[in-house]
Structure to design on (426 residues):
């Protein structure tokens, strides 16, 4: 019996373990952290042995194949040992795709993935298709393949997930944009990150579709260099605007969301969705939590939760959409960020910056000479209080951190939820 070891028992890992068990493999799950109670119960219910708080090498190095959580870097010592002995290491998406003939609509990019993925899923659902939502959102693809039978999957893919995909093929691949992100995972070499994003086109043929923002300078450069097998669908303001409605009619506001809506429209067209369904869906879609999410108006000040802005470019889009004087809350785990991208917008839109993180030195160094009111805090409660006292009637307080959440929070969702709770208590 072939032995499958799953490293990491979050959503993707536990799903992969359940699928592997169902397909008759000898399965073992190992997580060096603490496995949360719902996933423990799921593994126990399906008779999957597991360990947490450690990695027992004698139970792992004998694997025929390893399914790795995207959160585990390739430089981890255990991964290095597995690679050295030639053990195949794959992603949960790669593993799950072996057991389904469903059409795969896959979305990646530095920013806008969740919004675009959710919008495409919404359009397909409105059209009455049998569709699942997977990847970074929804239930794991593997768990859905094990327990459900969808005709289509709309999958949000991070660069980490793409790193360990080899035979997987996207029927429809979408690349929204590429800006520096996660450089700490890519030897601080931007090209390594770019190469990871373009893996979404891997194994595509002429029967498959590649939808991409042609005005992105990085994507444009790579497209001139690469010879891709898929049928190409470029989009952009100066290339092809496929929207069946005016920009004013779109439920999603902001220039970046016009582009996201373009990508989703082309994907829906490729799948064969009727124009009237696409049109109505674009007008009624409600958006995504933690992405430019309105929280409340307190003392005439609007509070916006953009906790999903875990990189500088995402914060750029948030600031670009601001129409009132802004108090910006930023900070967290720096991933090798270059903050100069938002310099002009910070000067134009913001009168106060509130830093919120355990290590704000880089922020102070970069923004200290801008002549703005700068407030240094090391926790969310103090950051919200500082912003409350700095904001004037008619202002907007924007949480758009530019950074990962792992210095103070479990995730960007946890950061956003805590922010909204603190605002509602004002």
């Amino acid at each position: 019996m072939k032995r499958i070891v799953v490293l990491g028992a979050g959503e993707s890992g536990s799903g992969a373990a359940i699928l592997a068990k169902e397909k008759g493999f000898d399965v073992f799950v190992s997580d060096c952290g603490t496995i949360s109670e719902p996933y423990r119960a799921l593994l126990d219910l399906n008779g999957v042995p597991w360990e947490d708080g450690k990695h027992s090498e004698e139970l792992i190095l004998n694997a025929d194949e390893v399914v790795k959580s995207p959160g585990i870097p390739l430089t981890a010592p255990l991964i290095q040992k597995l690679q050295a002995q030639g053990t195949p290491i794959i992603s949960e998406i790669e593993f799950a795709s072996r057991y389904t003939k469903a059409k795969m609509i896959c979305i990646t990019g530095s920013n806008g993935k969740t919004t675009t993925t959710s919008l495409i899923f919404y359009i397909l659902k409105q059209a009455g298709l049998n569709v699942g939502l997977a990847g970074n959102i929804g239930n794991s693809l593997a768990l859905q393949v094990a327990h459900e039978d969808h005709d289509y999957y709309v999958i949000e893919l991070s660069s980490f997930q793409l790193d360990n995909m080899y035979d997987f093929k996207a029927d429809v691949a979408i690349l929204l944009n590429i800006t520096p992100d996660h450089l700490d995972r890519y030897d601080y070499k931007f090209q390594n990150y770019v190469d990871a994003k373009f893996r979404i086109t891997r194994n595509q043929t002429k029967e498959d579709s590649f939808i991409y923002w042609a005005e992105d300078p990085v994507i444009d450069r790579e497209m001139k260099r690469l010879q891709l097998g898929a049928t190409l669908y470029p989009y952009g303001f100066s290339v092809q605007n496929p929207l069946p409605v005016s920009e004013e009619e779109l439920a999603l506001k902001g220039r970046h969301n016009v582009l996201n809506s373009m990508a989703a429209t082309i994907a829906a067209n490729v799948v064969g969705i009727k124009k009237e369904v696409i049109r109505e869906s674009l007008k009624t879609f409600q958006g995504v939590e933690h992405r430019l999410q309105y929280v409340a108006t307190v003392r005439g000040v609007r509070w916006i939760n953009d906790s999903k802005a875990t990189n500088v470019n995402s914060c750029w889009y948030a600031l670009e959409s601001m129409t009132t004087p802004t108090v910006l809350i930023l900070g967290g785990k720096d991933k090798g960020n270059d903050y100069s991208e938002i310099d002009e917008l910070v000067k134009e839109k913001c009168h106060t910056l509130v830093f919120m993180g355990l290590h704000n030195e880089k922020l102070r160094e970069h923004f200290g000479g801008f002549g703005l009111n700068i407030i240094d805090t090391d926790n969310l409660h103090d950051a919200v209080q500082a912003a409350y006292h700095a904001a004037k009637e008619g202002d907007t307080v924007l949480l758009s951190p530019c950074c990962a959440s792992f210095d103070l929070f479990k995730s960007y969702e946890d950061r956003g939820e805590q922010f909204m709770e603190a605002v509602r208590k004002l």
